[in-house]
Amino acid sequence: MGSFEEHSHRKNLFSVGKLSYAKGDRPPVACILCGVRDQDALVPNLTIFETDLSVVSVNLYPYNPGHIIIFPKRHITSYSELLEAEALDIHNLTQKCLSVLEKHWHVSGFNLGYNLGKNSGGSIPHIHQHIVPRFPNEAGFLDVFANTRVVIYEPYEMLKQLRKLWEDS
């Protein structure tokens, strides 16, 4: 039997920067999200907002415009370690993010979720929730003609837009 790629009908285009990141070429810190939390100069910081317990950040490699992550400031690797106050804080921040994106970007749907555990597809063990906006007619010509998906959105520009929207809401 051949590889998955041989049998998959969908093609993927990779960002050169993301490919090296996926292979492990990352800042030399113990935890990327703790580096964001601590504003470590070695780690790109796309923080939109933070509370005493959690951080809201643009995803460095977004799946869609507006792709946000929310994570507890406390370094934990298991969902069961979340304290009730942290879970409530993440919940409240999620509601705020959804409201901002719905109101200002006219988002018509979302995917929310955590990648938990080594085999979940997540590349960062510090737990974090993804908010991925979904838009009508997301399929572009590459999706239709080449069965390939490309997402181009500069995360630092997204950060500026989302910070302003957050403050205005």
From TrEMBL:
<dbReference type="InterPro" id="IPR011146">
    <property type="entry name" value="HIT-like"/>
</dbReference>
<keyword id="KW-0547">Nucleotide-binding</keyword>
<dbReference type="InterPro" id="IPR036265">
    <property type="entry name" value="HIT-like_sf"/>
</dbReference>
<feature type="short sequence motif" description="Histidine triad motif">
    <location>
        <begin position="126"/>
        <end position="130"/>
    </location>
</feature>
<feature type="domain" description="HIT">
    <location>
        <begin position="32"/>
        <end position="141"/>
    </location>
</feature>
<dbReference type="GO" id="GO:0003824">
    <property type="term" value="F:catalytic activity"/>
</dbReference>
<dbReference type="InterPro" id="IPR039383">
    <property type="entry name" value="FHIT"/>
</dbReference>
<feature type="binding site">
    <location>
        <position position="59"/>
    </location>
    <ligand>
        <name>substrate</name>
    </ligand>
</feature>
<dbReference type="Pfam" id="PF01230">
    <property type="entry name" value="HIT"/>
</dbReference>
<protein>
    <submittedName>
        <fullName>HIT domain-containing protein</fullName>
    </submittedName>
</protein>
<feature type="active site" description="Tele-AMP-histidine intermediate">
    <location>
        <position position="128"/>
    </location>
</feature>
<dbReference type="GO" id="GO:0000166">
    <property type="term" value="F:nucleotide binding"/>
</dbReference>
<feature type="binding site">
    <location>
        <position position="130"/>
    </location>
    <ligand>
        <name>substrate</name>
    </ligand>
</feature>
<dbReference type="InterPro" id="IPR052908">
    <property type="entry name" value="AP-4-A_phosphorylase"/>
</dbReference>
